[in-house]
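User: Here's a chain of 352 residues. Predict its fold as tokens.
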Amino acid sequence: MKARTVAIIPAYEPQPGLVDIVDALDSKGFEVVVVDDGSSDQAAGVFEAICQRATLLSHATNSGKGEAIKTGLAHALSTYGTACTIVTVDADGQHAIDDVVRVCEEARTHPTSLVLGSRTFDGDVPLRSRLGNAVTCGVFRLTSGASVRDTQTGLRAFSGELARTLAAVEGTRYEYEMNVLMQCARAGIELREVEIQTIYLNGNESSHFHPVRDSVRIYGKILKFSASSLLSFVIDYVLFCVLLSATETAVFANVAARLVSATANYAMNRHIVFASKEPVTRSLPHYVLLAACMLACNTIVLNALVVMGAPALVAKVAVEVASFFVSYHVQHSFVFNERSNNYEEAYVGNRL
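Assistant: Prediction complete.
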């Protein structure tokens, strides 16, 4: 039996254009699954118009784009199995059907990869979309070590085997899509990009993305890590200044201050930032190893800068800023990452 290609469309208060999207996908041979994410009665006519060409799933209340995608994934896997190819498509008409087809072809050719339909952001692109993607790509690159051109694209294709792994990723709203990228980068799953058209209709007014609320969700963990790091830095810097004044020895002041601030930082990151359930007996040795390596590197660089004539206090700030993103990436991926092994095991298990 020929493997199916399933198009999952999360939809909240969709415009009539969704009917054209479903018709076009159906004509291309896609099994179309539309998830009504708690839309109002005003959208009932749109959903009724697609019932003959798509499977319609519904949430009683608005649960978020990530949850809608997971509902679609569960249906696709239970109905078609892991032999299918799955693609997520936005309901607002921003994905050309030919691009959807090309992204799916790439996924079939590379079944172990997550394939992204990456926009070029050329032409008349709303400023908030252009800046938002630039910021998100930069944050993703710094925190994951991986690089993609379009972290916010909703056009993503992958194998049914990989779908099991993606369905286990945390997040219910827009943060889910960023979490997927982070988990793939963490688990060593290749992120492939296919260039697609950049389409914005009416200034992207149909988007339900809330710039402040949803950005906090997307960057929530990074923001908490930043607050934890800032507080730890204040502790570290105050102690450094006091000890430097008392001993006039930058190396001793740096080591002693770091021991105190690292203890506070571990507690905050474990309980607040990453909310890790990893046993202390496992995460603490990892954290100590990271702290020791960071301390050694920071001390060497700090001492080198002071020897070269840089003021000790200025050098201290420069070193701490440089180490921020390295520390986040290692703690997120290694120290407090009790779920990463589960993702990797599930992914490997799906391939066996």
